[in-house]
Design brief:
The complex is a heterotrimer. Chain A is mainly α. Chain A has a single domain, classed as MetI-like fold (Orthogonal Bundle), CATH 1.10.3720.10. Chain A has 14 helices and no strands. Chain C is built from ten helices and 21 strands. Classes of the chains: A mainly alpha, B mainly alpha, C alpha+beta. Chains in contact: A-B, A-C, B-C. Chains B and C meet through α8 and α9 of B and β6 and α2 of C.
């Protein structure tokens, strides 16, 4: 009963019309991305005079060299990489442990605790930002990369999705192992995780990319130039370059999304299907 | 029975009782061990949430009753005056209006629109679903800051392609980022670019779950696509739609912060700011932690109202297939 | 109503342009009849049904319904009523609205809609359930709602896709009778897909047996049962299935292993020059004699079902089954006694039936559909 794809006879007119509509939507969504990419290879004058033409009159890489000379791009990428990787790892660990416990360790509080986790998803960032900022200040972690990671030790979305994936593992497998006195950690590492690998990997990539793209919290915490993430650098660089720096800004933008784009290309099937699995709400 | 046999009998009974007791103890131990494992496994996440989400909410409530610049040791208790002040503060009031419009725009572009597009992808065309959804989901993984910058160029008054296109059609394009009203539209579009893809696939999943036979039965009754959507798909995906609505609403209140911060700074003249940006402004530009906290609590109440409403109505919309 | 025939002419269907899942189908379904498409899973029967409904496309060939070419006509325009295997009831609508859905689309006025709905509910004994939701109904009730919905359309073509397969065995018997009753209401062309031969034999007036999308035989239940066109049909119909055994023919004698028995003249004509044949005997036509007979047997297994005795035995190593009177005393030294007017012969290579002599396998007087009509 699952698949809802219907075999249609070719009703050319109707089908073609809707395909065109969808292609139009796709074009609108891709346009900014392509504009950015193309502009990064255009001379400044070309950008200003191009109108709606996308392709560069003259293909140049000077924008990139300018950005690379003015900004320490490797440092920016390195900072982003550090924050994103650390955040992803920490969130994955806490989420996997929590999800496993909720699914496979029988306990009468499972439901309530899960409910509590879900509620935290709805707390607006603006409510927690000030107190967390003050906490970090007390800990002396303002203006540090660790400070960016610390308030993000757990992620309710991750727990939700990983729990969902784990529920697909037959409980009987774990019960059989438990009867043989296999400790829970081993069950988790040797049975559950291999069976939910696709979801775990795609969740990890998703968390990584989200952290890479994060803006608000790093904006509050990171002050010095050496600690900027590349996403944050977008704002500062755009501000400092002004109108003469459009090409450069586009080059920086392209560089900043290179890694997320790459990750998306290799994992998109998996990521999309993790978010499409049934049971959107519990 | 001889005495010897009696003793043997007694010994056997003792041993059986001992075995029973051992079993009970083992079961209790297992329960205790399970409870310990449970606690250990959930501790990291729970502690993280308590320390960085629950406690901050409480502390924020506390802050909202103080007047404090976050540095000095004096914290003055001022009762509800923070709350009354923000509601008479012109920028904040404007930001409330703007936030309202952001929500409206996002509800149209990130709720109505993806609902329809996902329906089209499943039932109005017969192929290409995977391709379309991959492409449309891609922007959701791009940083909002990058998107904001790019869009600010695309909508640039003089040199942006949008106005160039309009010029070609004989229309004089407005100064998007500097005109009241239009600026909110552009900011809204930036956020749409990011949120649309995610909502799209959530709707897709729900629509794909409607059994094909139901649609076929309707087709045999000569139901138009229009009727199929309204009479069958909508009722049967309403629980998901409801969820998307609530989540999008919660996000719509705050997502615009990033493009505002990156491009307009709230301008022109507070015409693009939203409540979150004002909170940021109160706290980190003006160091008025009390007002920031009060405004934040106001936002919290708004979100919680919607969540509570969702809980209450959720039961009514769920149809078992 | 002959103008409502359904005709397939050289129809073929392919999903990928390479393999034809339906190949050169030529079939005429006369109007007003209960026609069964019977066969094992994957034989293409559902595909054929859905082609009639317009839910599957036709790659090549022509489909005519009521004289008009229907290949490109939308399902909604074909005036077809269909009952799906899983009933396809709209879970968010009451029974009444489910039934009326089609009429609402067609903008039939409310009074008329209600009248038709009540009429259909009455026929299927569901009047009390008018305002229930599908999830409040049992499987059998849901199936009847699906039937109501199809019934009110009063369409000339009534398609059923394994409508009883999700019901309990007990319900099925009553449901079968109900289906025939519905057909009697206005005599549409019933096209009924199933893999259950009992349904086919009891509900059907004509049966098409399919295997791997190829029509094996088209005939009345009686023809199918008593004159199967080939080994496949012979073994598909009848439970337990017909015993098929390979044998050789030498000097006008039927030989299995070391034993043989003379073949009567009437059969020798039909068997012709064949050196090898397959013959079939239905378990209920198996008869034994003691002491001497055509072929000695070894009994391997016995089951007493209360109403019959099921016997598994071997003839020279060939396994066979027989069903006998429950009180039959099985003793040693039994012989199979071949009843020459209850035997079927098939070509050993093509599996096709060689035919029947005059007077053999003549039609019985038992007509299943008439039996059900009397029950009304």
């Amino acid at each position: 009963m699952k698949s809802s794809r219907i075999r249609k006879a070719r009703h050319s007119a109707g089908q073609i019309f809707w395909h065109l509509v969808l292609i139009l939507v796709v074009c609108i969504f891709l346009y900014p991305f392509i504009y950015m990419l193309c502009s990064s290879f255009k001379k400044l004058k070309d950008i200003f005079t191009a109108g709606i033409r996308l392709l560069p009159k003259e293909f140049v890489t000077s924008n990139y060299s300018t950005v690379l000379s003015r900004l320490n791009v490797p440092l920016l990428l390195g900072n982003s990489m550090f924050v994103a990787t650390l955040t992803m790892l920490v969130k994955m660990v806490t989420s996997v442990l929590a999800a496993y416990a909720l699914v496979f360790v029988p306990n009468r509080f499972s439901g309530k605790i899960f409910y509590f986790f879900v509620i935290t998803m709805f707390v607006p960032f603006s409510v927690i930002m000030l107190p967390n900022y003050l906490t970090l200040s007390k800990l002396g972690l303002l203006n540090t990369l660790i400070g960016v990671v610390l308030p993000q030790l757990a992620d309710a979305t991750a727990i939700f999705r990983i729990r969902q994936a784990m529920r697909g593992v037959p409980k009987s497998l774990i019960e059989a192992a438990r009867i043989d006195k296999v400790p829970h950690m081993t069950c988790l590492l040797k049975i559950v995780m291999p069976l939910t690998k696709p979801s775990i990997v795609s969740m990890a990539i998703f968390l990584f990319v989200n952290s890479w793209n994060e803006y608000f919290w790093p904006l509050l915490i990171l002050r010095s130039n050496e600690l900027q993430t590349i996403t944050l650098a977008m704002k500062y660089y755009t501000g400092s370059e002004g109108a003469n720096g459009w090409g450069n800004v586009m080059a920086l933008a392209t560089m900043s999304i290179a890694l997320p784009l790459f990750l998306y290309l290799i994992a998109q099937r998996s990521i999309i299907s993790t978010f499409m699995s049934s049971g959107i709400k519990e | 029975m001889s005495e010897k046999e009696q003793i043997r009998q007694q010994k056997m009974e003792d041993r059986a009782a001992a075995r029973e007791e051992k079993k009970i103890v083992r079961r209790a131990n297992k329960k205790r061990r399970d409870a310990m494992v449970f606690t250990l496994l959930l501790a990291p996440a729970t502690v993280a949430f308590l320390v960085f989400i629950v406690w901050p909410v409480i502390y924020n409530i506390y802050l909202s009753f103080l007047e404090w610049n976050m540095v000095s040791p004096d914290k003055e208790y001022v009762g509800f005056s923070n709350y009354t002040r923000i509601f008479s503060d012109a920028p904040f009031l404007q930001s409330m209006k703007n936030t309202f419009w952001y929500v409206v725009i996002l509800m149209v572009t990130c709720f109505v629109f993806p609902y329809f597009v996902s329906f089209a992808m499943v039932h109005l065309v017969d192929r290409g679903q995977q391709v379309y959804r991959s492409i449309l989901f891609f922007p959701s993984l791009i940083s909002l800051a990058v998107c904001a910058v790019v869009m600010s160029f695309v909508f640039n008054f003089m040199t942006g392609p949008v106005n160039s296109l309009l010029k070609m059609m004989g229309i004089r394009g407005p100064n998007w980022l500097n005109t009241k009203g239009y600026v909110i539209l552009v900011m809204g579009l930036v956020v749409t670019w990011k949120v649309f893809g995610y909502n799209l696939i959530v709707f897709l999943a729900a629509i794909l779950e409607v059994p094909a036979e139901l649609i076929e039965a309707a087709k045999l009754e000569k139901a138009s696509k229009h009727k199929i959507f309204w009479r069958i798909i909508m009722p049967l995906t309403s629980s998901t739609a409801f969820y998307v609505f609530v989540v999008t609403f919660a996000h719509a209140l705050s997502y615009a912060f990033t493009p505002i911060s990156v491009i307009t700074g709230g301008g022109p003249n507070y015409q693009s700011t939203n409540m979150v940006f004002q909170i940021y402004d109160y706290a980190f530009v003006n160091f008025q932690s009390g007002r920031a906290a009060a405004a934040a609590i106001f936002m919290l109440i708004l979100v919680m109202m919607v969540v509570v409403l969702y809980q209450a109505l959720e039961k009514k919309v769920h149809y078992e297939v | 109503m002959a103008e409502n025939d359904i005709v397939f002419e050289h129809v073929y269907k392919s999903y990928d342009g390479k393999v034809n899942v339906i190949d050169d189908l030529n079939l005429t379904i006369p109007s007003g009849q209960r026609m069964i498409l019977l066969g094992p899973s994957g034989c293409g029967k559902s595909t054929i049904l859905r082609m009639i409904a317009g839910l599957e496309s036709i790659t090549g060939g022509d489909l005519y319904m009521g004289g008009q070419r229907m290949n490109d006509v939308e399902p909604g325009d074909r005036n077809v009523a269909m009952v799906f295997q899983n009933y396809a009831l709209y879970p968010h609508m009451t029974v009444k609205r489910n039934i009326q859905f089609g009429m609402e689309i067609a903008k039939v006025p409310k009074e008329e809609r209600d009248k038709q709905t009540d009429w259909a509910l009455e026929i299927l004994n569901l009047t009390d359930y008018k305002d229930r939701l599908p999830r409040q109904l049992s499987g059998g009730q849901r199936q009847r709602v699906a039937l109501c919905r199809a019934l009110v359309k009063k369409a000339p073509y009534f398609l059923l896709d394994e409508p009883l397969s999700n019901l309990d065995a007990q319900l099925r018997t009553a449901a079968r009778a109900e289906l025939v009753k519905i057909h009697e209401v206005y005599r549409p062309t019933f096209i009924y897909v199933t893999h259950d031969q009992i349904e086919a034999m009891t509900v059907g007036e004509r049966i098409v047996i399919l295997d791997k999308s190829i029509i094996q035989q088209l005939g009345s239940p009686d023809e199918i049962y008593n004159r199967p066109a080939n080994v496949f049909v012979a073994q598909f119909i009848g439970s337990p299935s017909m015993n098929i055994c390979e044998a050789t023919v030498e000097d006008g004698r039927l030989c299995i292993g070391g034993e043989s028995t003379p073949i009567p003249e009437k059969w020798r004509v039909l068997i012709g020059d064949r050196k090898k044949v397959k013959f079939g005997i239905r378990p209920e036509h198996v008869e034994f004699t003691r002491g001497e007979g055509d072929f000695p047997i070894q009994v391997t297994y016995m089951e007493n079902h209360g109403n019959q005795l099921v016997l598994a035995f071997n003839i020279e190593g060939n396994p066979m089954m027989g069903t006998l009177d429950p009180f039959y005393k099985v003793e040693a030294d039994l012989y199979l006694d071949i009843k020459w007017d209850k035997i079927h012969f098939f070509d050993a290579d093509t599996d096709k039936n060689v035919g029947y002599p005059e007077g053999v396998a003549s039609f019985t007087h038992f007509d299943p559909s008439s039996f059900v009509t009397l029950q009304k």
